[in-house]
Amino acid sequence: MRFMSTLAKSLLLTTSAVRSLTVIAKPSRVKKTVLSVAANNRIMSAAPLSTQSFPTEMTEAERYLFDLNGFIVIRGVLTPEEVRQANEVIDRHEHEMVERSDAALRNAVQGTKLYGSGPGRKDLGRVLEWGAESKVFKSILAHPRLVPLFHGILGKGYRMDHLPFVLCQDHGAEGFQLHGGTIDCETGEYNPNLAYSCFQGTIRSVLLGCNVMLTDHNPGDGGFCVVPGSHKSNFKMPDGMRDGEMYSEYIIQPATKAGDVVLFSEGTVHGALAWTPENRQRRACLYRFAPATCSYGRSYMAEGQSKWPKGIYEDLTDAQRAVLEPPYANRLDRPNIESDGSVKLTTRSERKRQHDRDVFGTKYF
Question: Secretion signal: which residues (predicted)?
Fold first, then answer.
Protein backbone atom coordinates (compact mmCIF):
# COMPACT_ATOMS: atom_id res chain seq x y z
CA MET A 1 0.00 0.00 0.00
CA ARG A 2 1.45 3.36 -1.00
CA PHE A 3 1.01 6.34 1.25
CA MET A 4 1.18 9.41 -1.03
CA SER A 5 0.23 12.97 -0.22
CA THR A 6 -2.51 14.54 -2.34
CA LEU A 7 -3.93 18.04 -2.53
CA ALA A 8 -6.91 18.55 -0.25
CA LYS A 9 -10.20 18.83 -2.14
CA SER A 10 -11.85 21.14 0.33
CA LEU A 11 -10.83 23.12 3.38
CA LEU A 12 -12.71 22.15 6.54
CA LEU A 13 -10.14 23.38 9.06
CA THR A 14 -7.56 26.10 8.63
CA THR A 15 -3.98 25.54 9.69
CA SER A 16 -4.28 28.09 12.45
CA ALA A 17 -7.39 26.39 13.81
CA VAL A 18 -5.63 23.03 13.85
CA ARG A 19 -2.68 24.50 15.72
CA SER A 20 -5.00 26.00 18.30
CA LEU A 21 -6.15 22.48 19.22
CA THR A 22 -2.64 21.02 19.33
CA VAL A 23 -0.37 20.94 22.32
CA ILE A 24 3.33 20.30 22.35
CA ALA A 25 4.04 20.28 26.06
CA LYS A 26 7.32 21.31 27.54
CA PRO A 27 8.90 17.96 28.36
CA SER A 28 10.16 16.81 31.72
CA ARG A 29 13.05 14.40 31.84
CA VAL A 30 12.07 10.81 32.53
CA LYS A 31 14.96 9.67 34.68
CA LYS A 32 16.80 6.49 33.95
CA THR A 33 16.15 4.00 36.73
CA VAL A 34 17.35 0.63 37.89
CA LEU A 35 15.23 -2.08 39.49
CA SER A 36 14.37 -1.23 43.08
CA VAL A 37 11.62 -2.85 45.10
CA ALA A 38 10.17 -1.01 48.08
CA ALA A 39 10.34 -2.68 51.48
CA ASN A 40 6.56 -3.09 51.58
CA ASN A 41 6.74 -4.84 48.22
CA ARG A 42 4.17 -2.52 46.68
CA ILE A 43 6.41 -1.46 43.81
CA MET A 44 5.89 -4.16 41.24
CA SER A 45 8.41 -3.08 38.62
CA ALA A 46 10.86 -0.33 37.88
CA ALA A 47 10.43 2.13 35.06
CA PRO A 48 12.10 1.07 31.81
CA LEU A 49 15.31 2.79 30.84
CA SER A 50 14.58 5.77 28.62
CA THR A 51 16.58 8.39 26.78
CA GLN A 52 13.51 10.35 25.74
CA SER A 53 11.87 13.25 27.51
CA PHE A 54 8.12 13.30 28.16
CA PRO A 55 5.84 15.34 30.38
CA THR A 56 4.99 13.55 33.62
CA GLU A 57 1.70 15.38 34.18
CA MET A 58 -1.06 16.71 31.97
CA THR A 59 -0.18 20.35 31.37
CA GLU A 60 -2.45 23.30 32.06
CA ALA A 61 -2.62 24.00 28.32
CA GLU A 62 -3.68 20.40 27.62
CA ARG A 63 -6.31 20.55 30.34
CA TYR A 64 -7.68 23.83 29.00
CA LEU A 65 -7.87 22.68 25.38
CA PHE A 66 -9.40 19.31 26.22
CA ASP A 67 -12.00 20.89 28.49
CA LEU A 68 -12.73 23.57 25.90
CA ASN A 69 -13.10 21.33 22.87
CA GLY A 70 -13.65 17.79 24.14
CA PHE A 71 -10.66 16.51 22.18
CA ILE A 72 -6.97 17.21 21.74
CA VAL A 73 -4.30 16.33 19.17
CA ILE A 74 -0.99 15.04 20.54
CA ARG A 75 1.66 15.33 17.86
CA GLY A 76 4.30 12.72 17.02
CA VAL A 77 3.47 10.09 19.63
CA LEU A 78 4.73 7.38 17.28
CA THR A 79 8.02 7.86 15.47
CA PRO A 80 8.19 7.56 11.66
CA GLU A 81 9.87 4.17 12.13
CA GLU A 82 7.06 2.98 14.41
CA VAL A 83 4.46 4.19 11.90
CA ARG A 84 6.29 2.28 9.15
CA GLN A 85 6.38 -0.88 11.28
CA ALA A 86 2.68 -0.61 12.12
CA ASN A 87 1.71 -0.19 8.47
CA GLU A 88 3.88 -3.11 7.39
CA VAL A 89 2.12 -5.30 9.94
CA ILE A 90 -1.26 -4.11 8.67
CA ASP A 91 -0.18 -4.92 5.11
CA ARG A 92 0.61 -8.48 6.20
CA HIS A 93 -2.84 -8.81 7.76
CA GLU A 94 -4.74 -6.88 5.09
CA HIS A 95 -6.48 -10.06 3.92
CA GLU A 96 -8.16 -10.22 7.34
CA MET A 97 -9.93 -6.87 6.93
CA VAL A 98 -13.71 -7.09 6.99
CA GLU A 99 -15.58 -4.59 4.84
CA ARG A 100 -18.88 -3.17 6.05
CA SER A 101 -20.54 -4.04 2.75
CA ASP A 102 -23.98 -5.09 4.01
CA ALA A 103 -26.60 -2.40 4.38
CA ALA A 104 -27.11 -3.45 8.00
CA LEU A 105 -23.45 -2.67 8.74
CA ARG A 106 -23.21 0.69 7.04
CA ASN A 107 -22.34 3.60 9.30
CA ALA A 108 -23.86 6.40 7.22
CA VAL A 109 -27.19 6.98 5.53
CA GLN A 110 -27.11 6.46 1.77
CA GLY A 111 -27.36 9.70 -0.17
CA THR A 112 -25.95 11.88 2.63
CA LYS A 113 -22.61 13.69 2.67
CA LEU A 114 -21.10 11.16 5.05
CA TYR A 115 -21.95 8.18 2.84
CA GLY A 116 -19.32 8.81 0.20
CA SER A 117 -19.42 7.18 -3.21
CA GLY A 118 -20.19 3.71 -1.96
CA PRO A 119 -17.44 1.44 -0.55
CA GLY A 120 -17.84 0.36 3.04
CA ARG A 121 -15.26 0.98 5.73
CA LYS A 122 -12.85 -1.88 6.40
CA ASP A 123 -12.16 -3.07 9.96
CA LEU A 124 -9.13 -5.05 11.11
CA GLY A 125 -9.25 -6.53 14.60
CA ARG A 126 -6.95 -8.57 16.87
CA VAL A 127 -4.16 -5.99 16.65
CA LEU A 128 -2.93 -6.95 20.14
CA GLU A 129 -2.90 -10.67 19.37
CA TRP A 130 -0.17 -10.86 16.70
CA GLY A 131 2.74 -11.70 18.98
CA ALA A 132 5.89 -9.71 18.23
CA GLU A 133 4.04 -7.91 15.42
CA SER A 134 1.82 -6.23 18.01
CA LYS A 135 4.67 -4.36 19.74
CA VAL A 136 3.80 -0.90 18.39
CA PHE A 137 0.09 -1.39 19.02
CA LYS A 138 0.71 -2.58 22.59
CA SER A 139 2.93 0.44 23.27
CA ILE A 140 -0.15 2.70 23.22
CA LEU A 141 -1.57 1.02 26.33
CA ALA A 142 0.98 2.71 28.58
CA HIS A 143 2.89 5.03 26.24
CA PRO A 144 4.89 7.51 28.37
CA ARG A 145 3.67 10.42 26.24
CA LEU A 146 0.03 9.42 26.79
CA VAL A 147 -0.01 8.15 30.38
CA PRO A 148 -0.10 11.70 31.89
CA LEU A 149 -3.12 12.53 29.72
CA PHE A 150 -4.83 9.24 30.56
CA HIS A 151 -4.31 10.03 34.24
CA GLY A 152 -5.52 13.60 33.77
CA ILE A 153 -8.70 12.57 31.94
CA LEU A 154 -9.46 9.14 33.44
CA GLY A 155 -7.56 9.05 36.72
CA LYS A 156 -5.02 6.52 37.95
CA GLY A 157 -5.88 2.89 37.40
CA TYR A 158 -7.30 3.65 33.95
CA ARG A 159 -8.13 0.57 31.90
CA MET A 160 -8.62 -0.54 28.31
CA ASP A 161 -12.37 -0.82 27.77
CA HIS A 162 -12.77 -2.05 24.17
CA LEU A 163 -10.68 -4.25 21.92
CA PRO A 164 -8.72 -1.88 19.64
CA PHE A 165 -8.93 -2.23 15.88
CA VAL A 166 -7.70 -0.55 12.69
CA LEU A 167 -10.19 1.48 10.66
CA CYS A 168 -9.45 1.66 6.93
CA GLN A 169 -11.12 3.72 4.22
CA ASP A 170 -10.31 3.53 0.53
CA HIS A 171 -11.15 6.29 -1.95
CA GLY A 172 -14.82 7.20 -1.62
CA ALA A 173 -15.40 4.97 1.39
CA GLU A 174 -18.21 5.97 3.71
CA GLY A 175 -17.67 7.82 6.93
CA PHE A 176 -19.66 7.44 10.14
CA GLN A 177 -22.84 9.26 11.10
CA LEU A 178 -22.28 11.59 14.06
CA HIS A 179 -22.84 9.80 17.35
CA GLY A 180 -22.07 9.93 21.07
CA GLY A 181 -22.45 12.92 23.35
CA THR A 182 -22.93 13.49 27.07
CA ILE A 183 -26.37 14.54 25.83
CA ASP A 184 -27.06 11.84 23.25
CA CYS A 185 -27.07 13.55 19.87
CA GLU A 186 -29.88 11.32 18.56
CA THR A 187 -32.29 11.13 21.51
CA GLY A 188 -31.37 14.21 23.52
CA GLU A 189 -31.24 12.11 26.68
CA TYR A 190 -28.46 12.32 29.27
CA ASN A 191 -25.94 9.59 28.54
CA PRO A 192 -24.12 8.56 31.75
CA ASN A 193 -22.21 5.81 29.93
CA LEU A 194 -20.29 8.39 27.89
CA ALA A 195 -20.53 11.44 30.14
CA TYR A 196 -17.88 14.13 30.50
CA SER A 197 -17.47 16.15 33.68
CA CYS A 198 -15.10 18.66 35.24
CA PHE A 199 -15.53 19.28 38.97
CA GLN A 200 -13.25 21.53 41.00
CA GLY A 201 -10.50 21.22 38.46
CA THR A 202 -10.72 17.43 38.01
CA ILE A 203 -11.54 16.22 34.50
CA ARG A 204 -13.24 12.87 34.06
CA SER A 205 -14.52 11.16 30.95
CA VAL A 206 -16.41 7.91 31.47
CA LEU A 207 -15.09 6.68 28.12
CA LEU A 208 -12.11 8.07 26.19
CA GLY A 209 -11.43 7.48 22.51
CA CYS A 210 -7.80 7.25 21.42
CA ASN A 211 -7.31 7.49 17.67
CA VAL A 212 -3.75 6.62 16.60
CA MET A 213 -3.27 8.04 13.12
CA LEU A 214 -1.26 5.78 10.81
CA THR A 215 -1.65 7.87 7.65
CA ASP A 216 -1.82 11.61 7.09
CA HIS A 217 -5.25 13.22 7.36
CA ASN A 218 -4.84 16.52 5.51
CA PRO A 219 -7.53 19.23 5.46
CA GLY A 220 -10.39 17.97 3.31
CA ASP A 221 -9.23 14.34 3.22
CA GLY A 222 -12.04 13.12 5.45
CA GLY A 223 -11.83 10.61 8.27
CA PHE A 224 -12.31 11.46 11.95
CA CYS A 225 -14.50 14.48 12.59
CA VAL A 226 -15.84 16.10 15.73
CA VAL A 227 -18.20 18.80 16.96
CA PRO A 228 -15.99 20.85 19.32
CA GLY A 229 -17.56 21.67 22.66
CA SER A 230 -20.45 19.22 22.25
CA HIS A 231 -19.30 17.30 25.34
CA LYS A 232 -20.77 20.17 27.38
CA SER A 233 -23.95 20.64 25.35
CA ASN A 234 -27.32 20.47 27.11
CA PHE A 235 -29.55 19.99 24.10
CA LYS A 236 -30.32 17.48 21.35
CA MET A 237 -28.50 17.95 18.07
CA PRO A 238 -30.61 19.68 15.38
CA ASP A 239 -32.22 17.49 12.73
CA GLY A 240 -30.00 16.90 9.69
CA MET A 241 -26.72 17.62 11.46
CA ARG A 242 -25.95 13.99 12.34
CA ASP A 243 -25.76 13.18 8.62
CA GLY A 244 -23.70 16.25 7.72
CA GLU A 245 -26.58 17.76 5.78
CA MET A 246 -27.09 20.73 8.08
CA TYR A 247 -24.70 22.97 10.02
CA SER A 248 -21.66 21.28 8.52
CA GLU A 249 -19.57 24.34 9.35
CA TYR A 250 -19.63 23.16 12.98
CA ILE A 251 -18.31 19.69 12.09
CA ILE A 252 -14.50 19.78 12.15
CA GLN A 253 -11.99 17.37 10.62
CA PRO A 254 -8.69 17.85 12.53
CA ALA A 255 -5.66 17.77 10.24
CA THR A 256 -3.19 15.18 11.52
CA LYS A 257 -0.02 13.43 10.45
CA ALA A 258 0.84 9.77 10.74
CA GLY A 259 2.04 9.20 14.30
CA ASP A 260 -0.27 11.78 15.86
CA VAL A 261 -2.88 10.72 18.41
CA VAL A 262 -6.34 12.27 18.83
CA LEU A 263 -7.79 11.86 22.31
CA PHE A 264 -11.51 12.58 22.51
CA SER A 265 -14.20 12.15 25.12
CA GLU A 266 -16.92 9.83 23.90
CA GLY A 267 -19.12 12.51 25.43
CA THR A 268 -18.04 14.69 22.50
CA VAL A 269 -20.16 14.12 19.39
CA HIS A 270 -17.93 12.65 16.69
CA GLY A 271 -17.98 10.58 13.54
CA ALA A 272 -16.11 10.31 10.24
CA LEU A 273 -16.27 11.97 6.85
CA ALA A 274 -16.07 10.08 3.57
CA TRP A 275 -12.48 9.55 2.44
CA THR A 276 -11.39 11.59 -0.58
CA PRO A 277 -7.70 10.77 -1.42
CA GLU A 278 -7.35 8.47 -4.42
CA ASN A 279 -3.91 7.01 -3.72
CA ARG A 280 -3.78 6.82 0.06
CA GLN A 281 -5.82 4.49 2.25
CA ARG A 282 -6.98 5.96 5.52
CA ARG A 283 -5.60 4.01 8.47
CA ALA A 284 -6.18 4.72 12.16
CA CYS A 285 -6.12 2.42 15.17
CA LEU A 286 -8.93 3.14 17.62
CA TYR A 287 -8.63 2.36 21.33
CA ARG A 288 -11.07 3.20 24.12
CA PHE A 289 -10.07 3.62 27.75
CA ALA A 290 -12.11 4.11 30.92
CA PRO A 291 -11.59 5.00 34.60
CA ALA A 292 -10.74 2.19 37.01
CA THR A 293 -14.34 1.53 38.10
CA CYS A 294 -16.10 2.01 34.76
CA SER A 295 -16.93 -0.45 32.00
CA TYR A 296 -18.83 0.03 28.76
CA GLY A 297 -17.55 -2.97 26.79
CA ARG A 298 -17.32 -6.54 28.06
CA SER A 299 -14.53 -8.05 25.97
CA TYR A 300 -12.46 -8.40 29.12
CA MET A 301 -14.87 -11.21 30.09
CA ALA A 302 -13.56 -13.60 27.44
CA GLU A 303 -14.96 -17.11 27.78
CA GLY A 304 -16.81 -16.15 30.94
CA GLN A 305 -13.63 -15.19 32.79
CA SER A 306 -12.28 -11.81 33.76
CA LYS A 307 -9.63 -11.96 31.07
CA TRP A 308 -9.06 -10.52 27.61
CA PRO A 309 -8.29 -12.90 24.71
CA LYS A 310 -5.24 -14.98 25.63
CA GLY A 311 -2.97 -13.71 22.86
CA ILE A 312 -3.06 -10.15 24.18
CA TYR A 313 -1.01 -11.07 27.27
CA GLU A 314 2.15 -12.05 25.38
CA ASP A 315 5.24 -9.83 25.81
CA LEU A 316 3.59 -7.15 27.92
CA THR A 317 5.33 -4.82 30.32
CA ASP A 318 3.93 -4.58 33.84
CA ALA A 319 2.49 -1.17 32.98
CA GLN A 320 0.74 -2.49 29.86
CA ARG A 321 -0.59 -5.47 31.81
CA ALA A 322 -2.00 -3.14 34.49
CA VAL A 323 -4.19 -1.45 31.86
CA LEU A 324 -5.89 -4.78 31.13
CA GLU A 325 -7.33 -5.13 34.63
CA PRO A 326 -11.13 -5.48 34.93
CA PRO A 327 -13.12 -2.64 36.52
CA TYR A 328 -12.73 -2.26 40.29
CA ALA A 329 -11.62 0.46 42.71
CA ASN A 330 -8.00 1.47 43.14
CA ARG A 331 -8.00 0.70 46.86
CA LEU A 332 -8.69 -2.98 46.22
CA ASP A 333 -5.17 -4.00 45.20
CA ARG A 334 -5.19 -2.33 41.79
CA PRO A 335 -1.86 -1.82 39.98
CA ASN A 336 -1.35 1.88 39.17
CA ILE A 337 1.17 3.29 36.73
CA GLU A 338 3.42 5.86 38.41
CA SER A 339 4.83 9.00 36.79
CA ASP A 340 8.21 7.31 36.29
CA GLY A 341 6.63 4.33 34.51
CA SER A 342 6.82 1.93 37.43
CA VAL A 343 3.75 0.10 38.70
CA LYS A 344 2.56 0.41 42.28
CA LEU A 345 -0.09 -1.75 43.93
CA THR A 346 -2.64 0.35 45.81
CA THR A 347 -4.20 -1.44 48.74
CA ARG A 348 -5.77 -1.21 52.20
CA SER A 349 -4.18 -2.22 55.46
CA GLU A 350 -3.67 -5.89 56.21
CA ARG A 351 -6.00 -5.59 59.20
CA LYS A 352 -8.90 -4.42 57.02
CA ARG A 353 -8.23 -7.13 54.49
CA GLN A 354 -8.28 -9.72 57.23
CA HIS A 355 -11.59 -8.30 58.45
CA ASP A 356 -13.12 -8.89 55.02
CA ARG A 357 -11.93 -12.49 55.08
CA ASP A 358 -13.43 -12.92 58.54
CA VAL A 359 -16.80 -11.40 57.56
CA PHE A 360 -17.28 -12.62 53.97
CA GLY A 361 -14.91 -15.56 53.69
CA THR A 362 -13.42 -13.97 50.58
CA LYS A 363 -10.45 -11.71 49.87
CA TYR A 364 -12.60 -8.80 48.71
CA PHE A 365 -15.98 -7.58 49.85
Answer: 1-20
